[in-house]
Amino acid sequence: MIESLLVANRGEIARRIIRxxxxxxxxxxxxxxxxxxDLPFVAEADEAVxxxxxxxxxxxxxxxxxxxxxxxxGAQAIHPGYGFLSENADxxxxxxxxxxxxxxxxxDAIAAMGDKINARNLMAAAGVPVAPxxxxxxxxxxxxTAAAAEIGYPVMVKAAAGGGGxxxxxxxxxxxxxxxxxxxxxxxxxxFGDGSVLxxxxxxxxxxxxxxxxxxxxxxxxxxxxxxxxVQRRNQKLVEESPSPAVDPQLRERFLAAAxxxxxxxxxxxxxxxxxxxxxxxxxxxxxxMNTRLQVEHPVTELVYGIDLVxxxxxxxxxxAPTFDPAALTPRGHAIELRINAEDPKRFIPGPGAxxxxxxxxxxxxxxxxxxxxxxxxxxxxxxxxxxxIVSGADRAEAIERARAAVAAFEVAGxxxxxxxxxxxxxxxxxxxxxxxxxxxxxMR
Length: 445
Hints:
By secondary structure, the chain is α+β, with helices and mostly antiparallel strands. The chain has helices spanning 11-23, 40-44, 63-73, 89-97, 107-114, 116-125, 141-151, 174-192, 249-265, 298-305, 309-317, 396-409, 419-425, 429-433, 440-444, and strands at 4-7, 27-33, 47-52, 77-79, 101-102, 155-159, 168-171, 197-201, 207-215, 221-233, 236-242, 270-279, 284-291, 334-341, 353-354, 357-359, 366-370, 377-378, 385-393, 411-413.
């Protein structure tokens, strides 16, 4: 096992990685921006280094500052968490060329999956189902229009270099396509430095289901169950659960086999997620993207399968065997994760601010992965995620009941907070039934 780990991230995910590292006897090193100096993850690390001002480009995305911090503290490995530099192939290469251990997939796999068109083509070649779409970027509006006519409206217009639900638009006809193409291309150039655009079939009623994979040190790729991620606003997730209420044993077998093929196609190592769209009318599913990192929603998989995924990440990076038997993975019970964000519960607009009160729920089947405590300030510089409330039960009904109680007991004062939305969701008949899709929030609003 590696002996020291620098966590190149912040907030709840940094705190969560530090917790496992310390449990394993690994010295945990935090890096932080000036405005994050008082957050819990900094205090809980064995050592902490300020790497710059609030602007992420000058701190959490500052490769030189992070590598200098690793060198000055004697860190042996770097864990990138999610976001920031976690899916930056150049950073992964730089970490390894500096003689450090990268806790994640190889740079080649990150690069291969970072381009959505290249990823689609690789997956299709590997026998993973992909939705009808372009096999090369739509170079101009004429190419996009021709592709859409061949695929058939409605279509999704996507930034090829995008991810996390960003850089996407739906066109129902040619007039809408002209607008969405220009909008997505401009956004992609601004956000990702790459204006390449992909045109793909859009499914009006669809579920978002993903599979957790783990590429082991011995070269095998293991699929560790699926997660349902269909409760979304602006194509970004708010709630995740495992197992998916839409997936029966036969469909699960197909999902897991496809995810393993996807990982094997790029010689995947460490933790990753194969995201898919599921057509509930036909039980057909299509590859969406592969996230080459640990996901925000990984705790629901941990609770259902009894695995600490961060510990397994560290074992893979150390060249060690997993703590579990890959041939004997069996889900037990049900888990639901709610993303507690500093945002308005009606319009979902961020509302940062100082936290005057913070009381976390406790009880059987309740877990909170939080990045803040009372007295901290949620700033405008970073994502609005404050905490993840994860509940588990013997079945989905019990998990929902525990979630209701936990939401009622969770007190946050100061910033805006979306807890009232979750109280509403957990009473929604469509959500309770398990028969919902990615437009659920739109129908609720």
